## 1
Amino acid sequence: MSWYVLILAGLFEVGWAIGLEYSDGLTKPIPTAGTVVALVVSMGLLAIALEDLPVGTAYAVWTGIGAVGTATLGIFLFDEPASLTRVAFIGVIVVGIVGLHVASGGH
């Protein structure tokens, strides 16, 4: 169950990272409020996942999900470059996330 909570925490991390872009430097009230809510939920879920998972593994996976999700949405939402090299390195992060899950026994 902790892994599902951690994945959800990572998805909320993507939400607040993307929200930062939409908040325009935290100057737009509604996107800023959504960003803050996503940040609080993300951190809260991470804290719950840490009850059963090692902090190093959980933090690496949480930030990895955030990095992959944010970079991917950046390509689709903000016309960021989608070069083969960039996409390949995003893939390397995914491999790292999966590797940490496997190495931890996937509990």
Note: The helical segments are 2-22, 29-49, 55-78, 84-103.
## 2
Amino acid sequence: MYSGKISEILKREHINIGDRILVEKVGKRYEGLLMPRIEYGNRNCTVIKLDNGYNVGVDCKGAKISKSRTKEPASVREEEEFELGRVKKGLVKVKFDKRKPRVSIITTGGTITSRVDYKTGGVTSLMSPEEMLYNIPELADFVSLKIENPFSIMSESMTHAHWQKLAKAVARELKHSEGVIVTHGTDTLHFTAAALSFMLKDLGKPVVLVGAQRSTDRGSSDGAINLICGARVALSDMASVGICMHGTMDDDYCIFTRGTKVRKMHTSRRDAFRPVNDLPLAKVWPDGRIEKMQTVPKRSSSVAKADTAFEEKVAIIKTYPGSSPSIIDHYAGMGYRGLVLEMTGLGQAPTYGKNSWLKSIEKATGKGVLVCGAAETLYGRLNPNVYSEGRLSMEAGVVHLEDMLPETAYVKLGWVLGHTKSVEKAKEMMLTNYAGEITKRSLQETFLA
């Protein structure tokens, strides 16, 4: 609720939530829809949705508040139909022609299906899957979309069980569609992309993961362009699992990047997802133009199968100056079967002094724990033969994973250990390239690509 003073003004001016108002203060004018005051905000501020889609809070001390006499734009009149961040069912206008190529969308939650919750002021999952498509009528021009919603969860709360369920849903939808789009929260989007890359065998069609860095009610929302470009990829001849997100901060094109070589590299930029130790597979424009940047497996008649075996007792451990090796002892004592160490340099762990990790690594590997190493630098590849410390870690039992990303290594380790009880076989599988997770050599042009 607004403060008593503001409430009195609103009552006197016959202003209700959702009315178009004008706030004049110190020569400045703010005009737009009156939104509910957020629960944790300043009670003396009015919250206004401007015509550009952004919300502003205006401290009303010394301000004049009145009903606006300006006729609102059509886009704003439509916005009045939104109730506390939700879209009325009657406004879901996108209708798809079933004669057009069919693509399945599997929604899982995240910012791309979120709007501002005006009770708290924060972004939350308030939308139905259909609402996500409300502002994207362009999709109906070239594709027929079928929506599935196996679960809805913010991505930081996902587990391997969600990846397994999602892989089965994707494999099922691929039987009836030209391709599959998975909408997903961005925070762990690259984990899921890696999981699907390993869990989908004999892939003959595109599987495209799409998210959004900005919620749909923001003027700078990136979800629409990402979905349009994702649909273009889903209809293409690229039979690969990848992430399709903004290639720049502008709405010009997206990049489609291999699911095992991509990472979220910024908390909020629209072009946060970048290839690491790899180039994008393709640049994709909303108008359908696709520029391939690598050789990609082509669409085929192969029927994808979900191979979802996964060992949940795996973990990532970061090494750092002063870090205690007791964390390895802890995981080994808890019955964990595999560990990924984010190692410094070319594959080193703390080696000397009371915090040497070597004895704990030896003890863990002696118990049958598979200990792998990935580069904490992300870019580049491990070569434990260069420094004595790297050689000692290798002698202690660490399997160095060349240029594999730590998150990809974690997902792969769980998938590998879900398929074998043999440590030696698991080592062999970890060093086998299944989904482009290991490149033969590091290319200069892939750094900060």
Note: The first strand starts at residue 20 and ends at 25.
## 3
Amino acid sequence: MNFPAHVKQILWDVDTRALKPARHKKFIITRIAEKGAWSDVRWLKKMFGTNAIKKAVVGSRNTSAKTKSFWRLF
């Protein structure tokens, strides 16, 4: 997958060339939802859609209560 430069900064500790959207969807979504800026979230919504983001974030143990509360509003 070809990630934009602003998203690669959030995924700095992994080889983004090896990430596959179908296989690593939850990791990509939760990392960007937790650490990303609004521009990153807009990209995330285009890639996966609001429902997939909400499901991944709310069901994750790796996201903060603040992030979960935000996504529950959608």
Note: The first helix runs from residue 5 to 8.
## 4
Amino acid sequence: MTGLMVLALLAADPAPAQAVDDEASENGGEGYTPPQPTVLQALRFTGYVDVGFAAAQGNGSSFAPNDFRIPADYGVDPFAPAVNSRGEVASNDSGGRFVNGFMPRSVGAGGNPTFLINTASVDARFAPTQVPVMVFMRMQFMPRFSSAGNQTRVLLQQAFGKVNPFSNAEFSLSVGKFDSVFGIEYLDNEANIRTGITPSLIARYTTGHSIGAKLFYRIQLPALWSAISLNVAGTNSGTRIEELAGPDLSLTGVPVGSGRLGYELNLKAVQAKLGFSGLIGPRNDTRDVRSKQWAYGADARITAFGLTVSGELIHLVDEAPEGAQRALKQTGLGLGELITAFQVSGGYVQLQYAVPLTTDWLTGLALYGRYDRRNATFRGFSTVETERFTAGLRIELFAMLAIKAEGLFNRELGSVPTVPNDVFTSSVVFTW
């Protein structure tokens, strides 16, 4: 144990870098070759702890007690009563009715207010300066309650290596398990980075992590204060979260292609990011390579004078094989689940204001509101139309402690049964 403590202190100690600066100054910067960093200096550990308190209306789910249509998850939006940045809900209890698996993870709270350890996250990064290679890994721990009692889920959320082969170009190639490249919301996946607490109603389709290869290239246009970027990936499951499509293995043997073409304007008082995204490939919830998924979307983020407006739109289609093969999934995990054609259109717009009141201890204060809309249809079933209004506050202290409070007001539209599923949630995030 003592040895581990010494190694950690050496890795965090800034003294070697200071010694290099002092010696270079004394030598006048001539004839001096700084020592190469050690392994410990190239290795860095960071992370955060997200502690929440949440309370949901009703039984914590979107399922109406007198709605007996099945599959039950085809007639409501079970993701609506989210309580944390992972998009987990207070409950996904369908009352014993059959569901087809398009379900979020649940914290098991039901309608009871409760404290939660939403996430304990640990990052390890190895980036030696003498070679253009970086290795990154993110492990996350989530204590949860289930019918089997208390248990802790351990997730290897990211694990990849990145190569930057050209010192004079913003070009990189990543291989492993990494963030999505579709849209912009994936940039706010982690609780310590996200201004608010909960993801949007369309985040389930754009913010997942999958295994494959990714290429990023950006070219600067200094005369126009602009940049153009291209982010493309070929992965096992595409850009959906793991609850909707398993990322760890390609069931068809054909990767899913996704990408985003972006434009950035970087003026002194105004910054803007615009992008167009696309996705195409086989569904990764069936072994039938003929069942395709495809999507397109647009996004924008504009910041000026402390005010940020961001938004995203997506249209996504899941195809299903025709005839007898339409009846059952060929997943290799057992029969009994329908493989149904599906399409969804949706988006969100968020307004955020950074209050210009900062001190040595108050390092950030933001107010925000978001409007979400989602229209989804499984073939042969009624359209599920939902909207959500979200309002919240974020206070940042000492640049390492964020305190957030948020209210979610869900509305069922059209033929969707009305159910009390609004949520109050809060989060305290310690970043280290």
Note: Residues 82 and 89 are 4 Å apart (CA to CA).
